[in-house]
Amino acid sequence: MSNLIVRGISAGYGKVNVVRDVSLTVPEGRRIALVGSNGAGKSTIVRTINGLLALRGGSVQWDGVPIESMRVHQRTRAGIATVPEGRLLFPDCTVTENLVAASTWGQPKIERQRSIEVVFDLFSRLRERSAQRVGTLSGGEQQMVAIGRALMTRPRLLMLDEPSIGLAPKVVGEIFEALGRLTGSGLSLLLVEQNVQLSLRSVDCAYVLRRGELVLEGNAADLLDHPFVREAYLGG
Amino acid sequence: MQAVISGLANGSIYALIAVGLTLVFGIMRIINFAHGEFLMIAMYGGFFAWSAFGIDPVLAVVIVTPVVMLIGVGLYKGLIRFALNVPDINQMAVTLGLSMLLQHMALMMFTGNNRLITQPRSTASIAIGPAIIQVPQLIACVASLSLLGLLYLVLRRSDLGLVMRAVSQSRDGAALSGIDISAVYKWAMAIGIGSLGVAGPLMAAILYVNPMVGALFTLKAFVIVIVGGLGSFSGVLIGSLLVGLAESIAAAWFSAAISAAVPFAILLLVLLIRPEGLMSARMR
Ligand SMILES: Nc1ncnc2c1ncn2[C@@H]1O[C@H](COP(=O)(O)OP(=O)(O)OP(=O)(O)O)[C@@H](O)[C@H]1O
Ligand SMILES: [Mg+2]
To answer: What stretch of H or E contains B273?
Structure first.
């Protein structure tokens, strides 16, 4: 019963709490979106869940266990993987090295090879570029490496922070198509996006964040028709 | 020719000292001003192993290295760990303070006397073409190059090397990949300081040990690391050979006094021409 339960969290930087009293749940195997415009606090929420940012209030539970005191790598090892904003890849390492780096702690060499093959099957472009330095890849390919690296940790929850940002529609299509193939095998998804239309089409349920507070939640299909969402995010 | 040979020999030993500094900086982004003091400790270790127990410096390497590796880990756990989250200027104060503390402790424990390991082979030398090289220097040079080769292999080929490069290139990215950053830092300190355990005993057979000897090498290592590009492995080798060569050529053409100023002249030149150093700052 792996699910993520975030209860009444607040977090921020300096004196300002940019996220206030946010609660959300990602049940096992579900695809959830967290949408909101620029600076709403989406990345801040992601960073409190993966541990890069300290919580100021509330609680985060994973599999029924509080994880606030766990360090970043421990949360990853517990099954929560992040494709972070800015990707945070290892630019001077090759594609393969980037993938292997995320599996050294958990998998013997033979299994790693198999995990890499799974990633290459998902993004066949990466197979051709396996020995290329990641810093020299296109933005889309780098995003694929970032997703691949997260998958190498064998997550049960995958959090993606704006995977579509700055990419051509065709590449975005490729990536979202791959994400579609991933889910359904028990992997939960927390998709963070500014692109409301795209993300609501790809998930089951969604939360709408505005200036650090949740203002709406519900079925993705219902939200697409919701007057507030249409008004604020879909241009009327 | 003689100047070139001894310059390259010195340079390769400098490389072994500087590589630890650059490794620790490349991975942890902390500048350890006390680096030379751990060399000093390793040199004393080699000297006392020889003077008290008659242990050959080559053998002493095997004993001193694990000890200084442990000291490196202890230093991380006891001090550096807490200094990582404070502003840079305070970090510098911490390692500078440690450097002075260690110098004064050495002065109290070992006095200010100059000490040197002298053995039958100390004065022996070997001809390389038209030039000659002292045997203790040759030993240190060979050991240093082998260890550098080994470190290079570890960095490029092993899991540990990969995660070290990963942490160096993106600390948060590495943590999100499940890598235990503090374990990597511990290894960086163990290897960074531990490499001085190889250099120290061998160097105690080449030049005098006293409590101040470390400071000189900290400075030289700094010049090398900045010239080569902070955090760059190949930069260290280039910077070391450059500094070693320039020193010995200056000594041959001009005087020892001028030779001593050469590293700093190189530093100024490089900073004027290429402020980022000769090589890039990330560990590849
Ligand atoms: N490191 C930081 N220091 C100070 N303030 C920050 C920091 N990171 C984010 N903020 C501020 O916190 C607020 C929320 O930022 P956050 O990055 O969570 O927004 P976001 O919803 O992810 O936006 P975007 O879609 O642009 O990525 C913003 O006002 C931002 O300026
Ligand atoms: Mg963001």
So the answer is: helix B256-273
